[in-house]
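Input.
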Amino acid sequence: MQTKRASAWSAMIVVGCVGLFAGWGCRREAPASQTPKPAEKLVIATSGSDTMVNLAQMWAEEYQKVAPNVTVEVAGGGSGVGIRDLIQGVVVIANASRDMEAAEKEQAKRNTGKEPIEWVVAYDALAVYVNKNNPVDTLAFEDLSGIYVEGGAISAWSQLGVDLKAAGGNDEIVRVSRQNSSGTYAYFREKVLNKKDFKMGSKDMSGSKDVVELVARTAGAIGYSGMGYLTDGVKFVKIAPKKGAPGVSPTLENVLAKKYPLARSLMMCTLGQPEAHVKAYIDWILSPAGQEVVKKAGYIPAAAVQEGQTNP
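Output.
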């Protein structure tokens, strides 16, 4: 009797185990093709214009919220450095505050077989800065040329009718400039110096912010930089096209009205049509959200300029 009961219990245990394992067998894993995959981590490497570096960093931080799987790396060094990095394949976007030169475009095509594309993403007024205590209000193009150009005769503020004694400064003009790889340097040289050489002895800074900070610390200094770098320690100088003409301040309204003479486009350069994730980033920059960042950075949205107009 006990043997029969033991056999019955054994059979029940076996059946139960079979049922249990059969139940386990029904829990099948979803095919690999149906399993959600994490978004691919993508990197967009950029370098170039120091005028644009703060703006580019702001874009990168905002875009991280829009596309968490995309990291935008931002480096400065000047427009020339960014364009060189693009041609050499170090970056996929060169930030530039000047047009690519014909030789650079030719080298890019020769090296990669692709035509460079310049995407206008914002506009800037190249501003002339002096210390906030400097009483100077307006300078003409010929004044700026006389200060900066090789052979220029202006080396003291008194030659311009400016007395710095009340501001606690010396009469000597301290010229602050940029390194020659800078697009800002190239633009100033072209528009103000008529492509002539700079006078030796200027204090050449590696970044736009460095220019403004030195001017803020130096009563007799003058420098040029993007309009987005205005701080409490400096002020804009109005620019007049010639002696005796009214000076014009670097403002949004004056740029759009074509009154300010040192307005320029800010660009992102790519080699041919970029990959999908890079193009998506550029499209976002040109969207209302990206252009709102331009305003916050103190520059002029591309959308504010009429379509097809590249030089306001």
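Residues 2 and 8 are 10 Å apart (CA to CA).
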